[in-house]
Amino acid sequence: MEIERVKEKILEGRPGFPRQYGPQRADHQPGIPLFPQEATRDLVTIFLLTAIMFFLSAFVTPFLGPARSPQLSELIVPDWYLLFSWGLLKVADIFPQFTLGGGTPLKAVFNAAFWGDLLSGIPIIALLVLPFLDRGRETRPAKAPIRSAVGVAGIASIFTSSLYSIREVVAQRWVTPNGAALIPDGTMKWFFIIPPVLVGLTTYIALRRLAYQPMRIWLLPYVAGLTLVVGAQIAWIFLTPGGLGAEAKPWIVPIGIALFIVFAPMVVTTFALMRWPESTARKVSTWAGALGLIGFLAFYFALPVVTKPAALGWVLSVLWPNMNTLVFLPIFGILTAWMGTRRPYSSYEYLLNECYQCGKCHTVCPVTKVEDDALGGLNLVYNTFKKQHDGVPLWTCLACDACSAVCPLDIQYSDYILEERAKVHAKMAADGGQKE
């Protein structure tokens, strides 16, 4: 009866069951449009919350307390969730400041206040226009690597801008043993920009590789470029007369050991990406990163024993402003190599892994009406990917594509079934027609 319903297209009038089949269908899954339904509901919710805030502020006046004592803190900062906006206002002074149309009614002043307001408004503007730009079907991050990489870079910029907003506290607390600022303001401005860019590139490479795309053409130049930058910094430190300074001369051996620990894993990882397959390069990067971390921790705990407690502080502090480059770039390089190299696997394994268990395929499948016990009760694709069935779907599937028609992610389940059947028949033919 259920099979006849599928053949006669009786189920097509039900919600969630489209009238066209296959990946080339032109219709869309039924849903609620953003405007006016969702927009109206959100506006009503916003107005209700605003009314509650007005009511509470009018009838429940908060106790302000005494005035703040100036001896408690020399730096006034906003709450933690506004630190990133405070950092954007502070970094605005690096932009050029000029005036257009002076002496005319169309005078425009591009000062630090203008750039600060513009930088603070960019995240809000992005959130407002995103629902109008992203109007497609739901997709996993690997299906939209550029958009996902920009989003992750934006999250990283929140942390870096929050750190820059308290640069005065950093300058006071993070000092060298002789009292100098460990991270000067100029270095922090670069730290404001470079880490989000590196995080975005690493995310893009990892997501593209997760989507079964060969990324050696991206991965090798990226990791090799980071290795060259770190190597150039180390060469500048040791070959330039003022690279280390007079205070660092007694610590030349610990500094060399520290630099070797952070630089050797990058060299090994780059060599592995150039010479060996991805599966081997991934194992090498894993071991290189693990051994580098263990070596740095061992160096951290052993150095005060053989010298004095302030020795590690000298090893790190005398390298500024190169310390951020020498410590963080190796981490980015090795992590990128590890995430950008994946073991070879079937493309269908990736496609089945897209399933997020909505259960629509299980609902419309005519076979599950008679074979529900064998399929387990979750859904076809998830059970197949996790191998939580007894092989019944491989031979009872009708290849009607009803599951593919309702799948929000366009997973072609019937194609996978037909390929697996072909593999079994090929094996049977090679074994002389005998089934195991």
Characterize the structure shown.
With 436 residues, the chain is an all-alpha fold. The chain folds into 3 domains: 78-101 and 109-213, no CATH class; 222-344, no CATH class; 347-430, Fumarate Reductase Iron-sulfur Protein, Chain B, domain 2 (Orthogonal Bundle). The chain contains 19 helices and 2 strands. The chain has a two-stranded antiparallel sheet. A hairpin with a 7-residue loop joins strand 1 (98-100) and strand 2. Helix 7 (185-210) runs parallel beside helix 12 (323-340) and helix 8 (216-239) runs antiparallel to helix 12. The radius of gyration is 30 Å and the shape is flat. The two termini are 33 Å apart. Residues 373-378 have low confidence and may be disordered.
Mean pLDDT: 75
Tally of separate helices = 19
Give the count of structural domains: 3
Strand adjacency order, main sheet: 1-2
